[in-house]
Amino acid sequence: MTAIILDAAPAPTRSRIFSLRGRLGRAQYIAYSLGAVVGAFLFMFLAGLGLMLSGQLGRLLYIVVSVLLFYGFLPIFFTILTIKRAHDFNAGGWLALLLLVPVVNLLFWFVPGTRGENAYGAAPQAASTGLKLIAAALPVLLLLAFLATGGPQAIRQTGASPATQPSTSLKPYTP
Questions:
Q1: pLDDT, average across residues 134-146
Q2: CB 52 within 8 A of CB 76
C-alpha cells in the first residue's frame, strides 16, 4: 500500500552555485563572497610568486590573469550570488544592480529571506555551523582591516587643513 501525503512542505534545496535559478541564504551569500575574495587574492599571490621568477613574460601573464580574474570572473560571480540572494527574499534579479551602489549593497547581508517556498523556489538548505562562522568573520575582518589602516583618523587626515600653507619653492608669476 502506498500512502499519500497531502500538503507536505517542500524540502529545502541545495542549488548549484553558478546557476541563476534558486535561492541563497544570508550566511551562504556572505561566506561565498568572502571565499571568492580570499581565494582570488591567495591565487594571485601564489601566481605572482611563481611568475615573478620567469621574467618579463611572467609579469605580462600575471597582469592578464589578474585582469581576467578581477574584471571578468569576480563581477560575474558576485552578480550571480546577488541575484540568488535577491530571490531568497522574493525579489527579482534586477535588484542585483544595487551592487553598483556603494554601501547600499550591504542590504543583501541584512534582509532576511522568506520562510518556506516563494516564487523562486523552495527555501535554501540551512547553513552549517562552519559556514555561519565564516559568514560572521567577514564583517569582523572588514572592521579590523579598516582599523588597521588608521580607521577614522586616516579619513580625517586626508583633507588638507586651511591653515597649512602649501610647501613649494616656486615663485608666483608676475607679468
A1: 80
A2: no
